[in-house]
Amino acid sequence: MSDSLFRARVRAALADETLHVALGRATAQLQARRATAFASLQDPAAVRARARAGKLAALRTLDLQLEEFERRLVANGITVHWARDAEEACATIVAIATSRGCRRAVKGKSMASEEIELNAALEAAGVEVVESDLGEYVVQLDRDRPSHIILPILHRTREQVGRIFERELGVDWTPDPAALARIARERLRERFLAADLGITGANFGVVETGTLCIVSNEGNVRMSSSLPRVHVALLGIDKLVPTQDDLDAALQVLARSATGQQSTVYVSLVNGPRRRADATPPEEGPDEVHVVLLDHGRTRTLAGETAEMLACIRCGACLNACPVFQQVGGHAYGSIYPGPMGSVLTPTMRGLADHAELPQASSLCGACKEACPVGIDLPRLLLALRRATVAEQPIAPTLRLALRAWAFVMARPRLLRLLRRVARVVAPHLARRGWLRRAPGLLSGWTAHRDLPLPAAQSFDEWWATRR
Amino acid sequence: MNAREEILGRVRAALRTARIPAEPPPPPPSSPLESAPSHEWRARFAAELRALGVALHEEASDAAVAERVVALIGTRRLLAWPDATLPPAVAARLAQLPAGQRLDLAAPRAALATAEVGLTAVDAAIAETGSLLLIAAHDRPRTPSLLPPLHVAIVRGSDLVPTLRAALAKLRHALPSAAALHRITGPSRTADIELQLTLGVHGPGALAVVLGP
After folding, report:
1. What's A166's domain CATH number?
2. Residue A397 has pLDDT above 70, yes or no
3. Measured between CA atoms, how close is A155 to chain B, in angstroms?
C-alpha cells in the first residue's frame, strides 16, 4: 500500500456522509454497551488482569506452548497442520478439501481466513464456499470487504443491505433487519444441511486440554463445526491461553468488549471428532477435525517492541474508541485489521515499509489503551513503529530543517518570546475568521493538513507570572 | 525445513528480543456466588434467564416438569434427546405422544431439520450468566438444541452451579472423552445490521427452560 493510496481512501471516507452517520451511531452505542457490561462484574480490573496474564504467559514461552498444544490436540484425535504464510495455509486447506472429496464448504466468521484470502483459493480449486455469519454473508454477496473485525458491515445501512439482497438473491427489497435475517436463515440453512466441509477460526486454543474455543451469537459456528463431516479450524499461533481459568477470564472480557454482552450466546469447546460413529444412531459431529496453525507474519510482530500486540483477543473495542476510526471507518486502513490494533498488526506482520502511514493515523490520545480489555499499550507500540519508520526511511530534509529550527527556538526562551510577539502582530493579517488556514514558508506544510488557531493575547507563562 | 520446525524456529528467535511485560499472574477472579447458598444460585439463574429473554417455567415436581414439557411441545414436530438422557417422567410422558410426532434420531438430516421443537436436558446450568452446558456425545445429539426454531431445555436443581469454573470442575471427568461441549446463553441473535437486535438468525430464536426441583 502506498501513501497516496492510503490518503485517497481517507479522503473518500471523509467525504462519505452515509458512512459518517453509520459510524457515529454504531461506535457510540458499542462503547456505551461495553461500559454497562463491565459494570456487571464485581471486580472488572481483576478479570481484565487475569485475561491479560493468560495471554502474556502463553506468549512468553510460545514455542513450548505450541508444542504442548499440538501434543494435546493430537491426543484428542485432531490433525495438526502448520502454515508459514497465506499461500501455505490456503494450499493446506484446499488439499484437505480435495483429498476428502469435499465440494461444498460453509464458513464461520474468521479474520484469519480473510487475511489469507481463503475463499478465492477454495473456489479456484472447485470448492463452493459460503460465509454463514450474517455480516460476512452480506460482504460475500456484495463482493465487499469487512470494515470491522466484529461487525463486518458496520459501514452499511439497512437500506443498502436490502438492496444487496434484492440484487443478489432476487428477493423483494426490505429495510427490515428481522426480515433480512429471516431470508439469510432460509438461504443458509440449505447450505448448512448440504455442506461437507465446515471452516471456522478459533478465538482461543486451550493448551492444557487441547481444546478449541469458538464463539458466535448466531449459531453458525455450531452448525459449521457440527454438521459437515470435516471441520477445519484456522488459528493464528497467537491464539493460545495456557489453562481453562485463563479461558474463563478471556471469555468474560471478550463478550463484554466486543458486543457489550455478559456472555456470547454460543461458546463451542471442540475437543475433536465424534467419538462414537458406531453407536445407534451414530453420534453427531464431524469425522475429522483439522487445526491449521498460522504464522503469516505473527513471529515478526513477536520480535522486539511489539510482542505485546499478540495478546490481542480481537474484540474491536479499540476500533470503536478510536477518534480516527470513528471518522474514516475500517476500509480506509487497507487491511482487514483496521483501527489502532490494525495499525500495529499490519505494519509488523506485512512490513513497515509498505504500511508506514498506519502508525501515523493516530492522535495518540490513549482511548485505545483504555478500552483494551487486556491492557495492550497501543500508543507505546504505535510510537515504537514511528521510531522504526524514521530509522528505516530518513525524513525529508525540509522536515528535518523545520524540526531543528523548532528545537532551536524552544531551547531559547528569549527568542521564543520575541517570535511570539512577532506572531501576535503578523498572524491576524493572515487569518480568516480567527483561524490560520495557510501559513507562510516552512509552516505551510503544517497548515496543509491542520488549521492553526491565532496566538492567544496572553500566553500561559505570562499569565503564570501575574499569579505569583 | 518443514513448516513446523521453521515456525518454531522463528518463534524462538523472536522470543530472544520480544519485549513481553513480566507481570505475576493474578489468581482467577472469584465470584461472590461461589460462596453463596444454593437457593441464591436459583434466584440468580432465574433473573439472568429473564434478562436474556428466555421463558422460564419453574415446577415443583418431576411430574409437573413432564406436564410442562408436553404442554410446551403441543402438537409440534419434536426432535428430542434419547429417553436415557431425559428425566424418566418426561420420557414416559413423551411415549404417549401421537405416533410420528417425535422424529427418529436416525432419520436423515433433512428430516431432522423439519423439527419445530428441540428437547434436551443439560449437563450443567450456570447461575451467574443464565447459561446451559451441553456435552456433545452419542446419547446427547447436537441438532435438537441447534436446528429447530424453539429449544426446550430441562434443568434439574442439581444441575445448577454458580459459575463456568464450577461447571468445568463438575464435568472434569466427562469432558476429556467428549467430542465437544457447548455453552448456550439465550436465544440465537445477531446485531450485524445497524446493531439492531434480531433473534433466531441460525440457531433457535426462542429458548424455554423448565426448571425442576
Report:
1. 3.40.50.10420
2. yes
3. 9
- What are the extents of the domains in chain B? 36-211
Contact assignment for B3 to A88 by CB distance below 8 Å: yes
For the stretch B145-180, pLDDT in tens is 999 999 999 999 999 999 999 999 999 999 989 999
Q: CB distance A295–B105 less than 8 Å?
A: no
Q: Are the beta carbons of B195 and A302 separated by less than 8 Å?
A: no
**pLDDT attached to residue B117:** 98
- Which residue matches cell numbers 493468560? A54
Last residue of a domain, one of A246, A274, A296: A296
From the list B19, B32, B165, the residue facing A248 with the nearest CB is B165
Residue A393: predicted pLDDT: 76
Q: Are residues A418 and A278 in the same domain?
A: no
Question: What is the rounded distance in angstroms from the CA atom of residue B109 to the CA atom of residue B43?
Answer: 38
Tens-digit pLDDT profile for residues A206-242: 999 999 999 999 999 999 999 999 999 999 999 999 9
- pLDDT confidence bin for A3, thresholds 50/70/90: low
Is A283's Cβ below 8 Å from some Cβ in B? yes
Q: Determine the Cα–Cα distance for residues A401 and A404; give it in Å rounded to an integer.
A: 5
Which grid coordinates are listed for A255?
463478550
Shared domain check, A145 and A277: yes
**Looking at the domain B36-211, which fold is it?**
Rossmann fold (3.40.50)
The ipTM is 0.97
**A164 domain residue, yes or no:** yes
Does position A1 have pLDDT exceeding 50, yes or no?
no
Per the domain annotation, does A353 fall within a domain? no
Q: What is the pLDDT of residues A158-186, one digit of tens each?
A: 999 999 999 999 999 999 999 999 999 99
Owning domain of residue A451:
398-467
**Confidence band for A390, pLDDT divided at 50, 70 and 90:** confident
Whether A209 and B176 lie within 8 Å, measured CB to CB: yes
Number of domains in chain A: 2
8 Å CB contact of B18 and A307: yes
* Nine-digit cell string for A87: 499461500
Residue A7: which of A394, A15, A263 has the closest Cα?
A15
Partner B, chain A 57-96, Cβ-Cβ below 8 Å = 57, 59-63, 66-67, 81-84, 88
Which of A271, A278, A288 is the best residue to mutate to test the B interface, defined by the most B CB atoms within 10 Å of its own CB? A271
**pLDDT lower than 70: segments of chain B:** none
The label of the residue with cell 470491522 reads A148
Question: Is A436 domain-assigned?
Answer: yes
Residue that is last in its domain, among A269, A296, A323: A296
Note whether A285 and A272 are within 8 A (CB).
no
Cβ–Cβ of B20/A152 closer than 8 Å? Answer: no
CB-based contact, B113 to chain A, within 8 Å: yes
Q: How far apart are CA B207 and CA B213, in angstroms?
A: 20
| Ranges of H-type helices in A244-377 | 244-259, 298-302, 317-321, 323-328, 339-350, 367-371
Residue A333 has pLDDT above 90, yes or no: yes
Q: How far is CA B11 from CA A303, A349, B209, in A?
A: 8, 14, 47
Place of cell 427452560: B209
Say how far apart CA A256 and CA A150 lie, in whole Å. Answer: 12
A50–B28 CB contact, under 8 Å: yes
Task: Kindly state whether residue A327 falls inside one of the protein's structural domains.
Answer: no
Nearest to B194 among A177, A192, A284 (CB): A177
